[in-house]
Amino acid sequence: MPAAFTAAERTRITAQLRRSGRRLFTTQGLRKTSIDELVAPAGIVKSTFYVFFDSKEALYLELILEGTAAVRQRTVDDGLRHGTDTRDALRRFLRGAVEVITSDPLYRRLTTHPEELAAVLAKLDPSAIERAGDNGMAELTEFVAEAQRSGDMLGDSPDVVVGVMRAVLLLTRHTEEFGESYPLVLDLLIDSVTTGLTTARQPRRPSTSTVRKTPKTPSTSRTGKTERKR
């Protein structure tokens, strides 16, 4: 029979399991992390883990959900919904996502190992899956689909576009390789991708070959009479 814990003990153990989970899931991933590794710092046995979480996948999901509100704020509320046009909205989304990945190691792990989230969701009930899906990706897919229907974006597959945008985020894994040039490389990549995905709708300056020449007006002589060209 599981040991009884006081409220203070439950709070302490839960916090320690969360810390252990974040550290281990970030550094070695879901599959390689064992229950024994999770419980050791908390000073409890393996069977007691299930008093606090149904599975290690449930713990993983809880850690993801901790940052969901911040993720949506940066990528959707301050991103997609605040763009001046489709291109600007996509740029804002990507830059917000980069901020999240840079500041949260677990989300950085999810960017490079999306199969881990799939493994988590495969073992959880539909309500948990619904909560996990509230991270901005559904809104991005809907936004892209609508932009493609309206002609603001190229292509007809939202999933392909979302895949391209996720590929941009992989650059965050190579910050050291680019050194001081990394911010410039990232900005140029984001601008190039979002420009390439969207249709040009802003007015362009006419080229010199298409500008009509203004007809010359007859010149006037010093006497005030109009001179005619011979």
DSSP summary, beta strand count? 0
- Structure classification: mainly alpha
Task: Name the helix and strand elements from N-terminus to C-terminus, one letter apiece.
Answer: HHHHHHHHHHHHH
Number of helices, where a helix is a run of at least 4 consecutive DSSP H or I residues: 13
Distance between the termini: 114 Å
Radius of gyration: 28 Å
Q: What portion of residues belong to β-strands?
A: under 5%
Characterize the structure shown.
The longest helix has 26 residues, at 7-32. This protein has 13 helices and no strands. Helix 1 (7-32) packs across helix 4. The radius of gyration is 28 Å and the shape is elongated. The chain is mainly alpha-helical and 230 residues long. The protein starts with 6 loop residues before the first helix and ends in a 33-residue tail after the last helix.
What order do the helices and strands come in, and which of them pair?
Elements: H1 7-32, H2 35-39, H3 49-52, H4 56-66, H5 68-77, H6 86-103, H7 105-112, H8 114-122, H9 126-132, H10 137-150, H11 158-169, H12 175-178, H13 182-197
Helix pairs in contact: 1-4, 1-7, 4-8, 5-6, 6-7, 6-13, 7-8, 10-11, 11-13
